[in-house]
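Annual report, structural modelling task.

Input specification for the alpha-D-galactopyranose complex:
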Amino acid sequence: MGIHFGVDYYPEHWPRERWETDAKLMQEMGVQVVRMAEFSWFKMEPAEGEFHFEWLEEAVALLDKYGIKSILGTPTAAPPAWIIEKNPEIQPIDRQGRRRHFGGRHHDCQSNQTYRAHIKRFVTAMSQKFADNPGVIGWQIDNELGNSHGDLCMCDSCKARFQKWLEEKYKTIEALNDAWGTAFWSQGYNSFSQVSTPLITAVGENPSAMLDWKCFCSDLIVDFAKWQADIIRENCPKHFITHNYMCFDNKVDYYDLGELLDFVSNDIYPAGHWQKQPHQPESELAASHDVIRGYKKKPFWMMEQQSGMAGWEIMGRALEPGQMSAWAMQSVAHGADAVVFFRWRTCAMGTEQYWHGILGHSGNPGRIYREAKQLTHTFAKYMDEFEGSMPNPEVAIVHNFRQNYAFDIQPNHPELRYVEQLYKYYKALYEKKIPVDFVQDMDDLSKYKLVIAPLQYLMTPRLEQHYMDYVENGGHLVLTMRTGVKDAANLCMTDRELPGRLGEICGIEVPEYDCLIETTGGVLYGKKEYEIQKWCDIIELKGAKQIAEYATGFYKQSPAVTENNYGNGIAWYVGTEPGEELMEDLMSYFTQESDIETLGAAADGVEMMTRESEDKIWLFVINHTNDEQVYHLHDRYTLLEGEKEEFLKPYEVQLFEKNKS
Ligand code: GLA
Ligand code: ZN
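The model returned the following structure:
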């Protein structure tokens, strides 16, 4: 496509006379694309059927004159007041049974057919209007679907739809009663019409019902997006359709949503005021980029990258010189084909008047603008070549939304979070400069030398077989605590000791376990004692060899980590959550045994990542710190950008290349 840098632009917040100045400044900065209009329904349709697209056509044409293309957002995350006045029932109901009202955004119920009809009218008109506009290249559906839809909607429309969804899934009410284990607490149903959306109960909830509810909500969001994608495709077959994801967010199964889209986009705010301060660790950002690439196994776009201080009522930290550029090139290193900065100019009104952009309130180009310009001018020339290329990791971490939902419903330990657990494994690899893919459990795993599958809690015979085949055929697999606990309906399995049939490849059984509430434990690995957290599986060896043992608890000296040869492969079982140090050392062992290459050696704030085309490999070395750093590469590359090999200035990004032999 040849488009690689852009900004999110809201011309409707500014006088018409300013637009040309914006376009000129953007062009000088190297902006090739803007995203617009994703919150401008009222401006485009101030009363039912009265369309006013002139202002947007004018903005598109003006930008096009400066060589800047447009992506248009469908504004369905903010239906205007006249729609709400006419159809107040489209506002969502929360779990307390309260209506959520107009005045913010996302005040919509996604199953409501009246709302769907409003969307159909509007999106049809908008997509027809811009179908042949030479300035428009694509669409973003809605905005961050699932965001602000806390617990989604409990209204009557959603209830009816949930009942229908359950009926399609279970066919008979007896089958639902079995799957939900409704013998417990007299929860049996006589008919689907008795099943409610999960309004707040007096106490407790049914974990199987909640799992279905979360899957239903995800399907509903996908259906809501498809409703729009179908309209756009019918009217604008030439344009691409994307959506701005939120990293690991779990309101919608992003793999399913990705099937509707031409490519996936992502939003990141590493120094958002809600993040760990001063900013989200770059290893977490790297993991986000890797999972985003994994959702469609394709390069992606950054549709919103933080470019200034973040804030609603309170604000986060200011960006240090070079930091934004390092984040931008980090996403490129992990597979982004384009980076769009949020936002062009800091706006003066509304909830986000402190959400800063490339330009401040005054609109004068300053430090951030100069930095962005320098970035595009340095890297634009390589971006065409990178386009379509992908990282090619030897290690995969398994990621799955249903597991995530199940741990949301029952964390087992009060602080256990599914994504955080994946991330702990990821971080150890990241710091060793080992690239990682995120994959879904049933994906073909055979191309990976090492697969790490934490918390395989919900288990099916098919998935068991899949993992067994992988190891049998020579794969190296890491399984962990809380594996094989439940069936697909979120009921505990009772026919075997944990971890079910996977015990055969691991050569173990787990007849007991301990939850480390408000305490930590210890493990002896080699000659050293390490901290462990949250959980201890009490393991019996059935052919495996012990590689670490507990140093605490009544199960002291029993196995904590095990290794088993199975077929041509190896299965490791980690019965606890390793503290950071143990994680590092275990991962050194697993990766060495699996013959995994590391890209180089450097301090933790220095990142190394590669992208490969058919004949080339590009290596990015990124300094995420405000200090000078040194590093060492394990392979020979030619330096394309950067001052001095093996040395980095604060926040410097270096680019290398080599030909594939
Ligand atoms: C999100 C949204 C944007 C904007 C920014 C800043 O990522 O997609 O519309 O609200 O956050 O808050
Ligand atoms: Zn609803």
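The chain has a mean pLDDT of 97.
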